[in-house]
Design brief:
The structure is a homotetramer.
Chain A lengths: L4 H15 L8 H19 L4 H4 L4 H24 L4 H15 L2 H4 L10
Chain lengths: ~120, ~120, ~120, ~120
């Protein structure tokens, strides 16, 4: 098992799909849909909660949300794999872009999009 | 910097948000919305493509999609952090559940949901 | 022009797609993706707003959101059309189901899902 | 009952929410989340289907999808109402914008976004 969780998950998901002969289903288009579907399940847990309630989930809900987040991650990792995208590299590049778009002195305490700072 | 990409990203995002005083915005509810919004941007790249086209993106589109996947990962990691969920652990648990729900002999070559296998 | 907005929109969208020879793109699968993508754009307007702010949009934002809601409606009407679903009928049936699931005396002042009332 | 389905649904949903004292839950922010959640349920029906399969649903699936489309419509109508947006008007305006963005001679047979035509 790899030292890095993202690579480990990528390899395990690849093996999982291959063992089940799911390659024909795992097109980028289909995986993008599955990803969005799982993200929709995440928000359903939060839609009627206040901000405060969302930060103080009971243990049962928190455990259920954790598995929904896992579903998002699994499809995200699988989608990146079939697109031959290194997810950790892409995330580091995006963080760098965000650091440039949201300089600390301009963005402090503001939720505005970068083109409005 | 951590050896594990998910922990590294979690720590960097936490510092990023703290430096900008974004704690009040980063409620689980808001981050769940941001996650779903980014997943929506991912699917927009694929909505008019055939399965084949989605597996053969031109380089410009693939690079754009990579950054959208990064956005999903960043919000996912941040959401897990504010919920105090270990994302890699949750993903491993979900993989185990999936392995039980989709035994190789029953699930081979089928896209049916586990309750229909 | 029809007296009923949903039928009018259905007919206009059908003519719009036919004039542009978009039938091959307008599969239910693709239209479902487009619908979800537009719903994602709607939430992006609200993700960093408090409940109170979301109810007091400035006029520019409200106008932008109105057009996003329109996008959702257009894809929803088009998707229903290609599936040969009468949207108004389906909505009336669902309202009836909801009335049974959420009786006034049990559901008053509660956001719980019907299976928890 | 109104002659126009959208106004009828708006009025019935308003009465439904008022009878249950759901005003505090029905903020634009929360309704936008509910809308996106329902759109996510729509795509889950289609994610593993080919384009052809998505256009030839069995009757049970088609009936289930119809009710999911109804859910999207109900939240969309309710969200427009609390934002004081006339949904049919907004849709007509957006159709006009689309007619300008996608002239027949340029857009025929192409799925490209208007800024690439």
């Amino acid at each position: 098992m790899s030292a890095d969780a993202l690579h480990e998950l990528r390899d395990r998901l690849r093996a999982f799909a291959e063992a089940r002969d799911w390659g024909a289903f795992h097109t980028p288009k289909n995986l993008a849909m599955a990803l969005a579907g799982e993200a929709g399940e995440v928000i359903e847990h939060f839609q009627w909660l206040s901000a405060e309630q969302s930060a103080a989930l009971d243990e049962e809900t928190r455990a259920a949300v954790a598995l929904e987040l896992a579903d998002v991650l699994l499809y995200l990792v699988r989608l990146a794999d079939v697109l031959d995208v290194d997810l950790a590299d892409a995330a580091r590049r995006k963080l760098q872009i965000n650091a440039e778009r949201y300089p600390v002195d301009k963005a402090r305490g503001r939720a505005d999009k970068y083109d409005r700072l």
